[in-house]
Amino acid sequence: MKKVMVFFALICFLYIPNAHASLFQNGDFENGYEGWSGELTDNSSTPHVVDPGTSSLYQVVSPNNQSEQGLNSTYWINDLFQDFTMDSLAPGEKMELSFSIKWVPSASAQDGISATLSDSTGADTIDLLSSVTDSELLAGTNVLVDITDFARNYSNQDAEIAFTLMDYDLDTSDRLYVDDITFTKTAVPLPPAVVLLLSGLGIIGISRKRGGSIQIMQLENLPEMQDIRGADILRYFSP
Predict the structure, then answer these.
(1) Which parts of 173-226 fold into alpha helices (H)?
(2) What CATH class is the domain 6-187?
(3) 120-136 pLDDT, tens per residue?
């Protein structure tokens, strides 16, 4: 059975402050491990920060330059992570995180993996594999997660994405493959009722009286507008 070790990942959370943190980069590994960091935990539970570009336990492999994480008799946990600045969202936009992942464990009932998105402290963490099954991970799958709320909460703030491979059966032939990690912003379509409200102001009762005052018809008097609440409108235009 898959072990998505979010609790363990929080304990081992590593964030390296960077005054020059940039937006997320190199999610397709076309530039090797540029922008990425690594951490290997040995069999005495001691973590070691490494450069994934020079460690043999991180390889960019074919096809399509995907990242391969591995283990050996010394290191039983392998973390690949990137600290970056979360992009901002404009009013009416949403953000999704997508990536491909494949897990090759020596024993899926005993070994573990995790994929997480966290704030800079690790206190707010999203389990990116919460809806992914064992069979999907073993076969290789594409993951899509709506992270709009997280992106709004941490807009222009530091965040971390991490992929972790763990071995517990002393057979360290395990491998984890990830690729095509992408943060995508898209506009959220307005509900028809809100479109009607915005485009139909001229026909829902705005009229000018003598003396320049404005009279606005009560929205609840219009049958097609009765289900609209102020919050339904504001959430599309509030940052």
Answers:
(1) 192-199
(2) mainly beta
(3) 999 999 999 999 999 99
